[in-house]
Structures are given as C-alpha cells and as structure tokens.
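Dear colleagues,

I hope this message finds you well. In preparation for our joint manuscript, I am sending the Alpha-L-rhamnosidase (Ulvibacterium marinum) sequence together with its predicted structure, so that both groups work from identical material. I would be grateful if you could confirm receipt.
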Amino acid sequence: MKHIIWIALVFFVSQSINAQLPPVFGEEYEGKATTSDMVKTYLKPQRIVWQSDNSGKSIKNVETLIKKGNGQVAVNDQNLFRFISTEAERPGILLDYGKEINGGVKISMGIRKSKTPLKLRLRFGESVGEAMSDIGGKQNATNEHSLRDFIIEVPWLGSIEVGETGFRFLRIDVVEANENAPIKSIDAAFVYRDIPYLGSFESNDERLNQIWMTGAYTVHLNMQNYLWDGIKRDRLVWVGDMHPEVMTINTVFGNHEIVHKSLDLARDQHPLPQWMNGISSYSMWWLLIHKNAYDYHGDLGYLKEQENYMIGLLDQLSMFIDKSNKEILDGGRFMDWPTSEIPEAVHAGLQAMMVMTFEAGSEIMGIYQKSELQKKYLKVAERLRKHKPKGNTTKQAAALMAMANLEDAKKINEQILTKDGVQRMSTFYGYYILEAMAKANDYKGALKVIRDYWGGMLDLGATTFWEDFDILDTKNTGRIDELPLPNKFDIHGDFGEYCYVGYRHSFCHGWASGPTSWLSQHVLGIHVMDAGETVQITPHLGDLRWAKGSFPTKYGPLKVSHTKNADGTVKTEIDAPDGLTIIQ
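The corresponding structure tokens are as follows:
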C-alpha cells in the first residue's frame, strides 16, 4: 500500500487551503490483492457534506463515520452511527471521500431489533450535485456504463460491498419507514494498481506541481483491467484517448504491460478493413502510439508482433487519398467533440494525421529493415504534404497542422492558438495545442495555458481532470465539492453537449492528462531518443525560477534539476542511470 499513501501525501500537501482536507488520503484498515498488481483498500469518509436532519432525532452519532475503524462488526459495538426513519421522514447523508476513486462501498451494520435487511438507496457522484440528483431530467444523471443510483439491502450484524464506478461523493438514504439502524461504517472500497510513481515534477509554481500530479493520478485510476477512457463512463478502450494516456504512462510509470494489452485488444477487436472504434483517426493513433512506445522503451520484439497488421493498415490508409493528394477517409471522421461539426477542421486534422502516420510508418519500416516499404510510405507522406487544407480556424486542427509541418508553428501560434486565451479548447486536444506551442518556442504562453485551463478545473474542486471543460462555463459557477446554490450554475449538471450532457459528463478522463507528459518533456527538457538509449536534456523554464523531477527510462530513473541564474542562463544537474546516454 505504500505507493498509494505516497501519492496521497503528495496530493494533499499540494491541495489549496480552501479544500480543508487532511494530510493523508483516508484511513486504510484492510487490503487484498485481486490480480498481479491490482489491490483494494478501504477508506473512511473525509467529511459529511450534508445530512437531512441536524436535530439528532433521525440521524445520530454521524461523527463516528469518519473515525478510524477496523471494518469488523461486533456484538458489543457502542454509540454507532444511527439512521431512524418514520412515516414522515426517511433520513439521508452525503459523504465526501476526499478525492475521486474507482470502486464501490462497504457498509457494515450492527445489532438491531429487526433482523430483516435494511434497504438503503445509494447515489454515487463525481460531484456533490451528481450524488444529490435523480436519474434523468434536465441535468441528465444516468446509470449508463456503471450503476451509480440503486437500492441495496444491508444484512443484520453483517456487511455488504457493492458498486463499481468512479466517484468521490456518496449519498445514502433510508428507503423504508420505521427503521432504527446502527451503522458501524460506510467505507469506500478503492480499487487501483499498486505501482510506483517513477516520474515526478516539482517547481517553484505549486499550481503546476498539482496539475502534473492530477494528470498522473487521472491516468492511474483508468489503469484498470485495460486502459480505460474513464472510470465512470465509458470504461472502454478508445484508442484515440489512449495516446495522451500512454504519453503520461511513459512519463510516470514507464513501460507498463497495460499499454500492450490494450493496444492488442483494439487490434484484435478490429481486424482490417475495420477502423478501430469505427473511427479512422483512431486507427492512425494506434500506429502513432506504437511509434511513441518504441521510441521510449525500444521493445523491438513487441513492435515486430504488429508488422502484418501495421503494413495492412498503412496500405489501407493509402487508398483514401484522391488525385489532389487530399485525404478522403471514410468511417467515423472524428478528431474531438468540439470540432466534430466543423468539416474544415476535421479535414485539416485528418490530413495532418495522415502525414504524421505515414512518416511514422516509414520510420517503423526502417526499424523492420524493409527499405522498399520505408521509401513507399515516405513517398505517400510527401504526396499528402502537397495538399494544404484551407478554412480551418480551430485550435485543435491548427495544432496538428503545426505538428505535421503543414503550416508554420509560429504563425499558427500567433494567429490561432493564442487567440482568446484558453477559450475553445478541449481537454483531449489541449495536449496537442501545448505541443504546437512548444514547437513555436512559446513555452511561457504554454505554461499560462496550463495554469488557466487545467488550473481552472482545480479551482472548481477537481481532483482528476475532466472529459471536457469550457472556461466560459466558470462564470458564476459553484464548485463540484459544494452543494449547488440557486443563484449559481452547477458546473457538472448545467453544462455539456454531445455525449457528455449534464451529470453524464465524465470527471475522470485519461485523455485530459496532457500537461503531465508535456511538463516533463518540455520544462524538464527530457527528450527520449534512439529507442530509449539516449536522452537529450533541453530545459525550457519559461517564467519558472527552478524545476526538478525524475523520469523512468529503460535503464532506471533519470533525475534532473534546473535553476535559472540571474542572467537568464540555466544551471542543470543530472543524475543518470548507468547505460543511459545523455546529450545536453
């Protein structure tokens, strides 16, 4: 359990004063392994957010729920938390477990006169508003993908464990009248991978430190049976979503088997000529992920396992180019949701992705020592470069065009990426916007984007990063860890579109973790090369005075520390593992 305690300590030290959270994440009293590195631990609530009765008549001894316990009921338990219901009142409480987690809840009950099971309604929520909501209605709470609103029965002098979803808050209500129920504990059953955080980031800006850690934790939670997009919704392997997630895993956890397992699942579930997840760009992301993984870890054996599929995929993609060298991909033509209704943006993004995919494919063929295919796919990339998409004004597609060298990065940054601050961004493509800004050497601007956009979620109480976030929605809006107020918008329930309307919106989405890998790569300046054999260190501190951290390499953790001198130069100290070549 040492790893989860460590991250909890780091996280809560970095929490804002307003959060008023304790220095450790819950009280562990039991743990058990479920697979090789999957474990479960039980956590006490951190605070009582709300209770239906404060008079002491229908709810008693509520403070016992947040005290450290042992999880074991006994015949002589005294002064337990107690629900007392009547015909007129069915009491309820709302618990806060301090931080978003994946799992369920374990409820234990003591002795009472009636030995019939106690019926309780449970409502899990990623926000207070969601936990207080009913299914349906304008704010669109759902039980889709994972049940989060249902009725259970708790046995007399026993325990029950239920639920498998992503949540931070839990509302519990008594269902029937005339109950007098002593409850020993209501503990979260937290399921996660007990793996060490090999990468780290620290600077003189605590906001950036917290953003780096929140991105890492967001992906960590989604490393379940496979690498999911979200722990509440969709709990699926979406290959496009995986690209920023894998970059974060490379940065924080190193070469983890869940990446191979999830990539292979996508390949085997979508034999050619199918597009992965029905989306042509997601098949391209699959190939680009493989290229990134090889660049970082140098696992040639695994890369060779993909040879037949990869050649087939590249040949298939090459059939979707017209005589003017324009991509004409079929299937789902999708980049991200905000651009999905803008054909010019979708085309510009797909054209750029085709260029990057065939360039990466050509390099992979070189690794396979297939020189003819290497030349063939490079020529396809050169053909695609001859077509320059017109009419795009979105930041997402513009970022990809800059990354693919279809447009000048500095021009793109000045004319599109920096326009209107962080308006019209998306959490998924925010990563590529940051990459394009780095290519334009606008590191100070990129740091401001991270502080304003991802920091905007933290300002609203986020402990993980969200499926989508619109900075304009923050005006007159309450926090996710507070009860919704009638004179303020509910950031969770009142906004969202496409597949994330209202409370259906996922508040733990791995594709939103981009700043974690970006800060390590560009601020710490850690650029992995030569299949993980070499690291070039070129820090860009922007407006920071200092930054330091660690990075997992194939030879072990690399540690760097950068301090800005009075004349603007940077002093760098490096602690590299044996076998790793360092270039400065």
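For the figure legend, we might mention the following. The longest helix spans residues 343-367. Confidence is low (pLDDT under 50) at residues 1-35.

With kind regards,
E.M.
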